[in-house]
Design brief:
Distance between the termini: 42 Å
Shape: globular
Structural class: alpha/beta
């Protein structure tokens, strides 16, 4: 039976403090080499999501500037601890561009190489699901990625500016169906922090 695991969150504090201590700590986090500079100082103690504990798989939903990427990176850094080499951040539109490039003659990597890369990290962040131009190919490729991580029971954190219904309209019903089965859905509300 489906259990509604959607949490409404109004209180997220995205503090980006660059100190020597923070910089030294983030140096050991190998996955942060894949994270945009803006988020490398993300800390779980600055993410005030009202939940008993953070789950293995999370789908962060909310409009732009609500703190989804910050929360995803902070959760991953906290979960990975000293072994953050087990985590990797991917921006979905750029990931789709890599897949498209893999089809060119003489490509350095194949579609299967990229899929295998996505299976290696224990924790994967898929940032900005739904921002890519929708197509049947994009839908099929994203389903392969999400379904493989689901079947292998690997923690996956996904962010999207879209609601579940909008994801369904853009990428088909299979992806939001799988996401609601595997993820706790956290909706980040409030104002766009970038416009404050």
């Amino acid at each position: 039976a489906y259990v509604n695991r959607t949490q409404e969150c109004l209180d997220i504090e995205c503090v980006r403090v660059r100190t020597f201590e923070n910089a030294c700590e983030t140096e050991r986090l190998a996955f942060l080499t894949s994270v945009p500079e803006l988020y490398i100082s993300a800390r779980i103690e600055n993410v005030k999501i009202k939940m008993p504990s953070l789950p293995e798989n999370i789908l962060f939903l909310g409009k732009s500037g609500r703190g989804k990427t910050y929360a995803a990176v902070a959760w991953t850094a906290d979960r990975a601890g000293k072994d953050a080499s087990m985590a990797r951040w991917y921006e979905v539109p750029m990931l789709m561009a890599r897949f498209r490039a893999s089809f060119r003659d003489g490509a350095e990597e194949s579609e299967l190489d990229i899929i295998a890369e996505l299976e290696k990290p224990h924790i994967v962040i898929l940032d900005d699901l739904g921002a890519e131009k929708p197509s049947e190919w994009v839908s099929e490729t994203m389903f392969k990625i999400i379904n493989k991580r689901y079947e292998e029971v690997l923690p996956t954190i996904i962010t999207s500016n879209l609601e579940l219904g909008e994801i369904s309209e853009r990428l088909g019903d299979r992806i939001p169906s799988r996401l609601t089965e595997m993820c706790d859905v956290i909706k980040l509300e409030g104002v766009d922090r970038r416009l404050k």
